[in-house]
Amino acid sequence: MAILSNNNSAVSNVYEKMDKQQLGYVMARLGSTENRQQFFSTSISRSEEVLPDSPSANAIDDVLQQVKKHLNAINQVASLKAEINELNIEYKYLQQWQSQNLRPEELFSHKYRFSSQKTTDLMAYIHYLSDRRIGFRNRIDLLLNFMILKVKPLMIPERRLALFTSLQLSYYEKNIREKQISLNEYEEVFKKSDFKILLGRLTSWSMLYLKQHLRRNVSTRSSFSAETYRDEFDRFIKRFPIIVAVRIRLLTLSARGPS
After folding, report:
1. Taking CA 199 as the corner, what is the angle to CA 195 and CA 203, rounded to the nearest 5 degrees?
2. Keyword annotations for this protein (predicted)?
3. Which of 47, 165, 224, 256 could form an SS bridge with 22, CB 3.0 to 4.6 Å?
């Protein structure tokens, strides 16, 4: 992996973080001629940090999935709260319009127990019938698909509008209720797990797993010089899998020939 930057403070920050984790021994600190000479003239030994046995990759993945689930719940809660708030506003406006434009005798009680999707299907079908004569086929469709036997209200524009508005209100109520149930389920995820603890566990376990992997696979016995490392670049990057360099010099790092 190559870390490139023209910003010295950014590079220093990388060094500091890696050294803090006692992983500086896997970094090749290249760049300017002076930096390379200093790097190759310094003895680099592996950390003597005593490492406990690391959790398995499967155990780490299990924690990762829990973290992802928690993050998804956070996003879903924010989205659902915004959607519910918007639906409540629209619902109140529709209630206000209904009270101002429809007479009490024209109002329908919410007697149709449909899902939100079924309600929108019926609304679409009523709109389809608005400029058509209701025939035998339409009556069959209404009966089989929506259990509606009496079609007289659909033949009178005012009554049809009242039914349509009633269905709209029913849709909002069902949709708000369904989203509230989903919101409660996601909020339950928060109660069952502590995100900070999960994230801390994922971070510490992953770092321990990485350190154990590097200790097993990176040999510190190999030695290189500023003059010869390019001739053995494949072996060099196995010893130093992280290369920190100035961006404009990266393309020359693996070139053969004198430095």
Report:
1. 170
2. ATP-binding, Helicase, Hydrolase, Nucleotide-binding
3. 47
